[in-house]
Design goal:
It contains one helix and four strands, in the order H-E-E-E-E. By secondary structure, the chain is of the alpha+beta class. A four-stranded mixed beta sheet has the order 1-2-4-3.
Length: 85
């Protein structure tokens, strides 16, 4: 993994984490490889975990996750409901 890209993604996660976690269905944040069509691209991304994906029409203005933040790609992954077990 590209250490420079990883560090940049970590900074973005730290800076924007609270804001992202306040959005509907967001259940977690991480750093990993971006996936397109279920396949990893090799590109470091901020991974936003959501309980389920919503269409643009189901979200209000300001609730849509960005495709990138300050040049760091955002990869949205649906993981279902998460609970401490």
């Amino acid at each position: 993994m590209d250490e420079e890209a990883y560090e940049r993604a970590r900074q973005i996660k730290e800076e924007y984490g609270d804001q992202l976690m306040s959005l509907p269905n967001v259940v977690g944040l991480g750093i990993g490889l971006r996936h397109v069509g279920g396949e990893p691209t090799g590109e470091v991304a901020l991974v936003v975990l959501v309980s389920h994906k919503l269409t643009t029409e189901q979200l209000r203005e300001g609730e849509l996750l960005p495709q990138e933040i300050e040049g760091v790609p955002v990869d949205v992954q649906a993981v279902g409901e998460i609970s401490a077990g």
